[in-house]
Amino acid sequence: MSQPESAVPKKKVLFRGRSNAAVANSNAEGEDSPEFEPFGPMPRGLPPLAEYLDIREVNMVNDINKKEHHTSLFSNALLIVRRAQEFQIRVTFNRAYEPAKDQFLLEFVIGSSPQMSKGTYIPVFPDPEKTRAWRGRVLDSMDNMVTVGITPAPDCIVGRFRTYVAVITPFGIRRTRRDSKRDVYVLFNPWASDDAVFLKEEEERGEYVLEESGILYHGEASDISARPWNFGQFEYGVLDACLYVMDRAQMPIVNRGDPIKVARKASAAVNSRDDDGVLVGNWSGDYSFGVAPTSWTSSVEILVTYASSRQPVNYGQCWVYAAVFNTFLRCLGIPARVVTNFYSAHDNDGNLKTDIILDEAGKVDRGRTKDSIWNYHCWNECYMTRPDLPQGFGGWQVVDATPQETSDGLYRCGPASVQAIKHGQICFPFDAPFIYAEVNSDVVFYKRDQSGNVVPVKVNSTHVGRKVLTKAIGRDQYDDITSQYKFAEGTEEERTVLQKAEEYGMGRTKVNYPETDVQVEILAQEVSVGDNFKLALEFKNLSGEQRTVNAFVNGYVVYYTGVTSDEVKSKTLTVTLDPWQTERVSVDVQADDYMSRLVEQCNLHFIVTGRVEQDSQIVSAMRVITLHVPELVVKVIGEPRVSELTLVSVEFTNPFQFSLDNVYLRMDGPGLMSPKIKHFSLISPKASEIWSDSFTPRRAGPTKLMVTLDCAALRQVYSQVVVNVKP
């Protein structure tokens, strides 16, 4: 997973012997329609056509259509509309249009070998009585100009259509020559009740379709960090890049009107594991041949680079996959949001548990413990109906582009109904058992005896899926949506769900062990990189008898995926507790213990395990300590105005006693600038560097400027500033 995959061109699939024509799977390909198409054999030369209508001009009415279809923000000169909603085209003829004797139509064509039965060739007559899949009507006729209203079908193909205006004569059809400036992009429509992605509330459409910037949550459940991100779905080149993603994945054109199929196909196409998709995954820490996942600020650079280079982009991790996938979905008109699950289980064998093996003394046996829990994992939710599922399972659907496990032979996940996951209905497609396990697994501790046998001695059913967060609507704060994925622990509803899950072979581990009357907890605390700190442990005796606990404290440098690296702390404790007593114990952790061993994202994982002398009961606690990184100071100078040069400065001070080498700064902002990069070969200890640059805003209104700093010794350094651009 950590190695870059090569983009090998796919062999052209031949359909000879099975079909007369290949399956159209490219929006970019397609033959131009002939300017004159006879109805039958014709004598030599074209027939006289002077007495019939002649088309002088076709106006796509961009300004009005884009405003009404909520597509004005796209940095694209072509017409962009949404299906199931009327748009206008004005046609100027050589003379006045006479409905009694003149016949004309508009033709919309997508892909190669267009066919009306497949929805890839769509004739639209300006007559409601000739209604077919797309409706047409004359809105206005004045002198030689006719304004036609066209309403695409609510389930029509999403993509870029070639547009023609054609006049019908007794001899044949005479149409306009192909002009790419008249192409029309048709998108999903969350504003239309007939569309499968209809979203009722306007403020939700504003956030989940139109919002260009967002927040990605990471860190630890009790110490949450918020990273800004530029989704940039309206930036120049992004829409064409999203269509190219489906082309590169060889998704049949006819399937591109179904949001279920689009989301499922794209969850595979955003990663490069199977189909030379957008992003190469890399969790190794070595990013020599690309950009570190922590360095990106935006989906725009990634998607545009992928479409222009025709090669997968290096590198991504879960939040990058989720952010790019979010851009793809919002760009095409599917409501979407990025979700972070804290303490996310990766269920490799489908047994719905994470196994931790203890040795004879009660200490974690690292050699035998293979399972791990991601500190956090990011995926997406997209909003749509699910006609393939029973009623009630539409709405938010989980989709995940991070390549973890294969589904139907490809590295993809979803869409899976959030409601189905919450209610234990994990038999429904797609991949619901895997997602259910991510939020609902048990952590099972096993004791290994001298004979090598292991038996379960303790179960923690609340550690996994501690919090599920997404950005709140209209605010830079998180919305806790854990209750949308599962019922509260111990409630009657939760027991019902567990029973339902057991029907599908996903039952939890049942362990018979004495009631635990001694508890231990690792208390949360904020620590900065390079700090000495005291790890605070709290032991509680909930019984009326004295208890003595022999405990082991182990600390490891850990990747955010839960994979441990070096051990940085090991200590043995003996704590004696009087009846009903609570005692706090501190363990010193020095910067020298961990600084030279840190891996990216600066996480330390501490596990406390122990045994009570009086009754041999097992006590345990786990916590990830996320080390906070230094900040960037971003300042916009003056009052930004549209099309006027604006200055910006970024300041960083190296707080460490060692130099930072090969430091990269990235700056980006929707409607403000394309991504800019600054390189510092070295920043000395305690030294400050200032990067001064400029940008020219393209449109008025509030937006955000985002900056990241990244180097091998320091990841996840970022900042943002709100920019209010005046007209």
Features:
727 residues; Immunoglobulin-like; Coagulation Factor XIII, Chain A, domain 2; 4 domains; seven-stranded mixed beta sheet; 11 helices; 13% helix; 39% strand; disordered N terminus
In words, what does this structure look like?
Residues 310-403 form the Transglutaminase-like domain. InterPro entries: Ig-like_fold, Ig_E-set, Papain-like_cys_pep_sf, Transglutaminase, Transglutaminase-like, Transglutaminase-like_sf, Transglutaminase_animal, Transglutaminase_AS. Belongs to the transglutaminase superfamily. Transglutaminase family. GO terms for molecular function: metal ion binding; protein-glutamine gamma-glutamyltransferase activity. Strand 40 (701-711) and strand 41 form a beta hairpin. Strands 1, 3, 5, 6, 9, 10 and 11 form a seven-stranded mixed sheet that branches. The protein has a six-stranded antiparallel sheet with strand order 22-19-18-16-25-26, with helices on both faces. A five-stranded mixed sheet has the order 28-34-33-30-31, with no helix packed on it. The protein contains eleven helices and 41 strands. With 727 residues, the protein is mostly beta strands. 13% of the residues lie in helices and 39% in strands. The protein has four domains: 36-187, Immunoglobulin-like; 202-503, Coagulation Factor XIII, Chain A, domain 2, CATH 3.90.260; 518-628, Immunoglobulin-like, CATH 2.60.40; 633-725, Immunoglobulins (Immunoglobulin-like), CATH 2.60.40.
